[in-house]
Design a protein that fits this description.
This protein is mainly α. The protein contains 54 helices and no strands. The N terminus is likely disordered.
């Protein structure tokens, strides 16, 4: 018995020793590395990574463990951590080319294409396979930086050495597809799949091409074939989930997520796919919670941040959405999708002006992006800018000839390659799902509002209301339409409904404030903004809205300026607030203050092209032409294709009397933009300023030959001749232009030239014939009417403005001009009726107030006239004519001292001023 116990003890001891030894063996670095390799062979990266991290705890300088960990992290999508491990492995002298390829891959996954190019473009590798792999990565890096020729050159080099390289052939297909050569793209993909049947990336991209052409069923089958061939491939599964979510096949997508959970439940792609399905189902809280798991471990993951922005926008968590999307924009400055979604967020949050600011900045860089143009159209609608809204929608339509839906589908599967930057395209398709339901309605509404078809606009808004009953924009647009119909009560009700849905909505608040002003209730308008500012003193929209109310209601300039400056102080980073202050100061003629504000803005936000452009404008206004030239050159270096900035540069060069430089600048603009009339007109003005009218005419005649069906060349030549007072020579040139194109400006130029040669009857006949042939045209009537006011041909002016009034019965401008012509012709009674109607439409327009006051003054109602003129003078302090009328009213009221003070100021006018004689005559009467 004792012997048996002894044997058992010996056996137990042996087993214990064996267990201890086995435990030591399993925990030594070599065993842990071997175990990790086994896990990796099963695609269980998380388990393998744990083994490697355990090995590194006891052997931190093990180069192989560092390399394998870096490789696993690349495969698992954690590129930042992968780069750290791979660089440590390189420091530890891990040999071979594979580590360099993996390092380049990790950097590219982190959206660092420029760094990849800088580090690896001259890298020499030893094996053909590694050279091909690195060459393909370099090609992708070049493509990411927009250098397509370099990308193609890198691919050509790879394919010369390895004509069946799958990665290179797939990227070649992407390049061909991006260039519109789909047959070549398919040919490259077929070659890739022939070399590697079932390759996931090539199969998925081929599916993408199929989806882009509307063949969704074929696309799905292709991805399903990739999943069938590689059931444990997370990229293939994710590609299928992405496609199914966008196709709204959410149950099927969820089934694939379940399969991903069985393979790698903790992998970020599995969690992300689960969040994507939740977002598609409208389970936003679930999606948010899943995304928080990813972002806790991967705070800069691009696709998780973007989807987080979408999810939090839907949840109304606007601050969280903004934070996520700003990070996306910072990581992808060359991709418009983040900026587009940021614009959508600001619209949903009621921050319409900020949406406009964001989208306009993006469109300066991406002027042809249909997604940006669509959202910009909505933003312009929300802020009441019908012309800009219609323009944005027209541009989007012109650039979407192939159909927006196809463009979106073409990009749906790009996330499967593991390049998170390209995943934004997939998410953009999801984010546009709601917009696609009502964008067509917005296009129709914007067109009707712009054309003042308010009844039709209301019908379109009714259709929008059925689709978007909880969208504040619906009621903002309804309020605008009712305002156009002068139905103040219904307009108010509509704007108030928008504010009920979204308290503090800036566009609806502004709409109500403008109604208050129109009904001469400036205190009510001001209180609307005071309420908002009491809760949020730094609200830029409210500060600028308050400034608008103060200015429109005739408050002192310093009070208005203080409100605009408060907007800047509230948010020094606000581009809109800065631009508003500079613009206000320029409009007030305070060039020095505008320049100081522009310089301050530039210091606060360096290298912003919009601010730099305003700085140049302020420099011109302040007489610093040479500095303006330098400023505009810097902007052009940032935006070399911006013709507007180039023309501003030429303007600065003319202001600095560097005419040759201006002419050279404008020639360059015309070479790139031959159909831009402003560039040709600028060139003409530069030649005239340089005293070279013959050269201007030569250019115009060259243009006539280049564009024989265009009237522009003839209009320019005729204009130059008129500038030289060669009226008789100008007439046949202008007539030739009219035979090419019936352009209103040519009619006006011809009218002037005929009058100057004494052919008044021919001039009148020309205008009468035009008006008969173009009964709906308002431009010629307007221009001839204004010309007639200048020449004091009041009968002609009255005829033109009465005809215009029949076409535009509610135009305060036409009513005002007609009233002015009538009062000057002596028909004060008729003038007063029209002036009063204009005043009721625009009670805070200084010109309208001046005209109405003049009719009252001539009718004997001096007190009311004086009250209006004092307000008008405050609104337009630089308007000398209003100041002269104020002096007249003061004298008639018995306040000769007050009248004299005004006249003393006006006596400083140049002796050539047309008002100077009236001022001197009135002073002598005192």
């Amino acid at each position: 018995m004792k012997a048996m116990k002894k044997n058992l003890l010996i056996a137990a001891a042996a087993v214990s020793v064996a267990l201890v030894l086995d435990g030591c063996n399993r925990n030594d670095p070599a065993s842990l590395i071997a175990s990790a390799k086994t896990y990796f062979a099963k695609s269980d990266y998380n388990a393998g990574i744990i083994q490697l991290k355990t090995a590194l705890q006891s052997a931190p300088d093990n180069a192989e463990a560092r390399f394998l960990l870096g490789k696993a992290l690349v495969e698992g999508g954690d590129a930042g951590a992968a780069e750290v491990e791979l660089r440590k492995a390189i420091e530890l002298k891990y040999p071979g080319d594979e580590i360099k390829v993996l390092l380049a891959q990790s950097m590219l996954q982190q959206n660092q294409p420029a760094k990849v190019i800088a580090q690896f473009k001259n890298q020499a590798l030893s094996t053909p396979e590694s050279r091909s792999q690195l060459g393909s990565l370099l090609a992708r890096a070049y493509l990411a930086t927009g250098d397509v020729p370099a990308a193609r050159a890198a691919l050509d080099k790879v394919l010369t050495d390895a004509p069946t390289d799958v990665r290179a052939l797939t990227l070649q297909a992407e390049l061909n597809a991006a260039g519109g050569d789909l047959p070549a793209a398919y040919k490259s993909l077929d070659a890739a799949l022939a070399a590697a049947p079932g390759d996931v990336e090539a199969t998925v991209f081929k599916a993408q091409l199929e989806a882009g052409q509307g063949r969704l069923e074929a696309a799905t089958k292709l991805v399903e074939s990739a999943v069938a061939a590689h059931p444990e491939s997370l990229p293939a599964r994710y590609a299928l989930v992405s496609l199914l979510v966008n196709a709204r096949q959410l149950d099927a997508a969820a089934g694939n997520v379940d399969s991903m959970k069985k393979v790698a439940p903790l992998d970020f792609r599995t969690v992300y796919a689960d969040a994507l399905v939740a977002y598609g189902r409208g389970e936003y809280a679930k999606a948010r919670d899943l995304l928080q798991q990813i972002l806790a471990a991967r705070p800069n993951d691009l696709q998780a941040l973007f989807l987080s922005g979408l999810v939090n926008t839907q949840l109304g968590s606007y601050a969280a959405a903004e934070d996520a999307l700003l990070k996306v924009v910072a990581q992808t400055p060359n991709d418009p999708r983040g900026q587009r979604q940021l614009g959508v967020l600001y619209l949903r949050a009621g921050r319409h002006a900020q949406a406009v600011e964001t989208l306009e900045a993006a469109l300066k860089r991406f002027p042809d992006d249909t997604g940006l143009l669509e959202v910009a159209g909505e933003a312009y609608l929300a802020t009441g800018n019908m012309a800009r809204a219609a323009d944005a929608y027209e541009r989007a339509s012109a650039r979407d000839k192939g159909g927006m839906a196809n463009t979106v589908r073409l990009a749906q599967l790009r996330a499967a390659t593991g390049d998170s930057a390209r995943a934004l395209r997939d998410l953009e398709a999801l984010s546009r799902a709601d917009a696609s339901q009502y964008q067509a309605d917005l296009v129709l509404i914007s067109t009707n509002l712009r054309q003042q078809n308010y009844t039709q606009a209301l019908a379109s808004v009714d259709a929008l209301e059925r689709k978007q009953p909880q969208n504040p924009l619906t009621y903002i647009l309804k309020g605008m339409a009712y305002a156009g119909l002068h139905d103040t009560a219904k307009s108010r009700t509509s704007f108030e409904r928008a504010i009920e849905l979204q308290p503090g909505n800036s566009a609806a608040t502004r709409g109500l404030a403008l109604l208050d002003l129109q009904q001469q209730k400036p205190d009510d308008a001001r209180k609307r903004y005071d309420v908002i500012l009491a809760k949020d003193p730094k609200n830029v929209d409210a500060q600028l809205g308050l400034a608008e109310v103060l200015s429109a209601s005739g408050r002192p300039q310093e009070e208005v300026r203080k409100a605009v400056e408060a907007a800047v102080a509230g948010d020094p980073a606000s581009l809109r607030a800065r631009l508003a202050l500079i613009t206000y100061l320029l409009q007030r003629g305070d060039a020095k203050a505008a320049l100081a504000a522009a310089q301050s803005a530039q210091s606060a936000s360096k290298d912003n092209p919009q601010l730099m452009e305003m700085l140049g404008i302020a420099q011109i206004g302040a007489g610093e032409a040479n500095q303006a030239v330098d400023t505009f050159r810097k902007v052009l270096a940032m935006q070399p294709q911006n013709a507007q900035v180039a023309m501003r540069l030429a303007e600065a060069q003319v202001a600095g009397k560097n005419y040759e430089a201006a002419i050279d600048t404008l020639h360059k603009v015309i070479a790139s933009n031959p159909d831009v009339p402003q560039a040709w007109l600028g060139l003409t003005q530069a030649y005239l300023a340089a005293g070279r009218p013959a050269d201007a005419i030569a250019e115009a005649r060259q243009l006539q030959k280049q564009q024989p069906s265009s009237a522009l060349g003839f209009a320019i030549e005729g204009g130059v001749l008129m500038a030289q007072k060669k009226w008789a020579e100008a007439i046949p040139v202008l007539r030739q232009g009219l035979t090419r194109q019936p352009v209103p400006i040519l009619v006006v130029q011809s009218y002037v030239a005929l009058q100057e040669t004494g052919r008044q009857a021919d001039a009148a006949a020309l205008v009468a014939r035009w008006n008969t042939e173009h009964p709906e045209d308002v431009s010629v009537r307007t221009l001839i009417g204004e010309r007639s006011l200048q020449t004091k041909d009041y009968p002609m002016a009255i005829r033109q403005f009465k005809a215009l009034l029949a076409l535009q019965p509610d135009s305060s401008r036409v009513l005002n001009q007609l009233a002015w012509a009538l009062v000057q012709s002596g028909d004060v009674a008729a003038a007063r009726g029209y002036a009063e109607k204009a005043y009721n439409l625009e009670p805070y327009n200084a010109d309208v107030m001046d005209t109405y006051a003049l009719t009252l003054l001539k009718s004997g109602d001096v007190p009311k006239a004086l009250e209006l003129l004092r307000s008008a003078s405050t609104l337009a302090p630089a308007n000398d004519e209003i100041r002269l009328h104020l002096a007249t009213a003061l004298i008639k009221s018995g306040d000769k001292a007050g009248g004299k003070r005004e006249l003393d100021q006006l006596s400083k006018l140049d002796t050539n001023s047309p008002l100077r004689a009236e001022v001197d005559k009135l002073r002598q009467s005192l």
